[in-house]
Antibiotic biosynthesis monooxygenase (Shinella zoogloeoides), 108 residues
Amino acid sequence: METDMGRSRQIVRIAELEIDPAQLDSYRSLLAEEIEASVRLEPGVLMLHAVSLDEAPEKIRLLELYADEAAYQAHLATPHFQKYKTLTASMVRSLRLLPVTPILLAAK
């Protein structure tokens, strides 16, 4: 979403993942650890939400919100994200990153 006065643009993405069902518990644990560290340690990570589909728990969806492109690139370079990517590489059967445009993001 474009901010006032031409300031930087927030980055919003949806990630669609399919995880090897035999490794789902391990994946979920590593994902939770990575999300917690990202939100706690990175000021530019504004939101990371993870859900799985009820009818197919191996299908994970992430909603990601970053302050701007620099925050997103910084996130990709962090040790906790690199650990997550390395340790989950063999667990992820597919990954699709979808850039999206928010209509309204609201939380209580």
